[in-house]
Amino acid sequence: MKIGYACLALGVPGGQIKSCTRKNATEGRLLSLIEHNLQALQRILAYNIKNGIKLFRISSDLIPFGSSLAQELPWPTIYRDRLHAIGSQIRSAGIRVSMHPGQYTVLNSPDRSVADRAKEDLAYHAQVLTSLQLGPEHKIVLHLGGVYGDKRQAVNRFYGRYTELEWVIKERLVLENDDRLFGIGDVLGVALAAGIPVVYDNLHNAVNPSDESPGDLDWIKRCAETWTRDDGPQKIHYAQQHPHKKPGAHSDTIEIATFLPFYEDVARGDLDIMLEVKDKNVSALKCLNCISNRGLKSLGLDWERHKYSVLERSPENYDAICELLAVQGSYPALEMYRRVEASLNMPVKAETALFAATHVWKCLQDRVSESEERRFQRALHKLATGQGDLRLVKNTLLTLARKYGHEQLLSAYYLYL
Fold first, then answer.
1. More confident residue, 41 or 210
2. Which residue in 187, 170, 191 sits closest to 178, CA to CA?
3. Which parts of 87-189 are beta strand (E)?
4. Domain 3-291 is found in CATH 1.10.8.420
5. 45 near 90, Cβ under 8 Å?
6. pLDDT tens by residue, 128-181
């Protein structure tokens, strides 16, 4: 079983995927962004390999305007060697990747021009995966689309448009239930008839359940029937509801106490779980560290990334976690992450925020210039006197950490959360 995350990673220096506005999308600008994004993808993959994360969704923005303005650019040829190197990186590490077109890729639209643009977008996504020399087990996830007042006609339009797709798209395409229109029962009916694998999304089903009411495990078993050997292991999406947002909104983090019972119910070697969550790799590492003993070193490395975020909210939990990890031969993953989660749910108070920021500053103070130190102290003073906010302090620290290449700080979640 693989557990992974989607598109972006926190605390991976140089791993930011960039784009631009349409009016600035000149040929030179697009080629520059493509080169940057391919380098960023390599860095994210290197991070994933180092941390044992073997499931990852590649951002659709990898090639900015890939299905429109950049469509005529020969990027597969210009960057052939880089693309092949990335593909080799993925294959040799046993990583499985996917892509997921956005909400405007609607194959069953009654507007033929919208459907044609959807075909072009699917062709672009397939071209990325093909250019990486990856097999059909690396998938493109799509929703059925809109209802447009008549679900039966909408489904029939999907069938018709699907038959028009090139095989290079069909062999990668998988369908996912959505949180408003097409429930898992609807999607399974279409997929079984068309021979398309189904990705089950537990949160979408909770928000938009089908008429039937089996549990997650039963739906997952039904969806398994749509996957063939050529498709690779069955893949599902797992998410938790954000407590303060509209139904279907993803939580900021995966609460481990809720995830583990789900995992224990569905765990098997031929099932991959894509986490859909705001904090991305942070939750992926948490889940991986909790479902198996990956060693105290792995746990300690993740604590290094978390510790300043905990310190600015709860010095008590900070001390308690340090004590937990000091016990040789132990593997206190659940208790560590329980305390991390509890801390991140606490409000940040001015006193502890100043304490943590000063603590982080000590990592940089021997490297910076006098003017940079004055700038930081001004930001800190504004925070202390209520004239500025914590984000200004953290942005100042982030700028300095980048300038001086402080890898430990650049990997810390504190600077991004």
1. 41
2. 187
3. 96-99, 139-143, 173-176
4. no
5. yes
6. 999 999 999 999 999 999 999 999 999 999 999 999 999 999 999 999 999 999
